[in-house]
Design brief:
This protein has 132 residues and is mostly beta strands. The chain has one helix and ten strands. The protein has a five-stranded antiparallel beta sheet with strand order 1-7-4-9-2, with no helix packed on it. The chain has a five-stranded antiparallel beta sheet with strand order 6-5-8-3-10. Strand 5 and strand 6 form a beta hairpin. The longest helix has 9 residues. The structure holds dTDP-4-keto-6-deoxyglucose. The site of dTDP-4-keto-6-deoxyglucose has 9 residues, from strand 2 and strand 3.
Length: 132
């Protein structure tokens, strides 16, 4: 499984850091939606689904969390703990987010608007879908 890690250049000076993300420059798609999760209940796992047609970049802009990515053949776990680091996730990848620190803010930039019909929420259906 080839998962792309992105390191975004911080524009730092003696006032602190600033990261700018421009679509089709820093982000490899048109950004149609941004969402973020915070105050995550300790011990909880989020996600547990795949998308049929969605590209995303996940950035833990504060705190840390782990992301399990599974393409049906391989599984990999990534630690997101830097506000200038992100991972790119294409369609057909099962994802689970877990081990959120209490202060974690996980931001996601997405290539499409929210569409419940794009979700595959059952793991067996995901395996059937990618083997089709
Ligand atoms: C994903 C992972 C990384 C909306 O109304 N609009 C939105 O854009 C999103 C993302 C969610 N919602 C609503 C739908 C649910 O009632 O917010 C609620 C929580 O969504 P969900 O259970 O899908 O959250 P996660 O954390 O399991 O998954 C989310 C994204 O949905 C998903 O696309 O890849 O984060």
């Amino acid at each position: 499984m080839e998962i792309k890690k992105y390191i975004f250049e911080p524009h730092g000076d003696d006032r602190g850091q600033l990261v700018a993300l421009e679509e089709l420059k820093d982000i490899p798609f048109d950004v149609k939606r941004v969402y973020y999760m915070y105050d995550t209940t300790p011990g909880v796992t989020r996600g547990k689904h795949a998308h049929k047609c969605l590209q995303q970049i996940m950035i833990c802009v504060h705190g840390s969390c782990k992301v399990l990515l599974d393409d049906g053949k391989e599984k990999e776990i990534f630690l997101l703990d830097k506000p200038n680091e992100g991972i790119y996730i294409s369609n057909d990848i099962w994802r689970e987010m877990f081990d959120f620190s209490t202060d974690a803010v996980l931001m996601v930039l997405a290539s499409e608007l929210y569409d419940e019909s794009d979700y595959i929420r059952d793991y067996n259906q995901f395996i059937e879908y990618i083997e089709r």
